[in-house]
Amino acid sequence: MLMGNTIDAYWKWHETLGPLxxxxxxxxxxxxxxxxxxxxxxxxxxxxxxxxxxxxxxWAGLSLDGAYYxxxxxxxxxxxxxxxxxxxxxxxxxxxxxxxxxxGHPKPWKVKYVEIGNEDWLAGRxxxxxxxxxxxFPKFLKAFTEKHPNIQIIASPSVFDNMTIPAPAxxxxxxxxxxxxxxxNFNRLDQLTRQNLxxxxxxxxxxxxxGLGWDGPLASNPWWGGSVGEAIFxxxxxxxxxxxIGATYVSCLNPSHQARPFLLTxx
Length: 267
Known about the structure:
There is one protein chain. The chain folds into 2 domains: 1-171, Glycosidases (TIM Barrel, Alpha-Beta Barrel), CATH 3.20.20.80; 173-267, no CATH class. Helix content is 30%, strand content 13%. The protein is an alpha/beta fold and 267 residues long. The chain has a 4-stranded mixed sheet, covered by helices on one side. A 3-stranded parallel sheet has the order 3-4-5, covered by helices on one side. A two-stranded antiparallel ribbon has the order 1-2. α2 crosses α4 (127-147). It starts with 25 loop residues before the first strand and ends with a strand.
């Protein structure tokens, strides 16, 4: 949803404000239309109701069809993201803080984590990924570090995705593995240091042992082997909790064997 199907159809947070009848909606990336009835305010109210700490993902100039912003265009994406954080955290004297207050939330929300993009190692690779590493992420990191030094910035790849994550940023690892590979990755997080934190933003044992991976069918339902493999892997994450920001489980539960994720934070 964040990225959108095309470069001009990403999730525009400012279009999710106000009465539902005034929200244009968008084409969903999972083959259905989105009303954006669950907008940025509703997300934050939901988090408040459940006493959750949010990780705000901001659009970083990449769409699912592989198109990406040039270095000059990236400045526009950065300002749009900074405006989003101002809407969430700014005082009522700021432009977007005043808009938030007009919607019934004069008190700013607290945002501790901001992730730049989503799986930027995937769509449009290798060119789009090189652009992320060369200028998109560095420019975002510089702008956010200067404007919001107390926010932990997270890159959408991790150190396990052939990217050196520059300090003070953290990474985001999305391991979808067979049960056996879950077990073999039990101690992989041990190599992290306090200087290269990571979020496990998505993880699940989605492929049976001996299967074809992404070239074959996903497991249609959770099964014992996958559950045991995931448990062993997450024990490895838990024992490195000083370096792992959090972990998110993604389930694929549909008869067509296509991924339909829902997220449950493990914090």
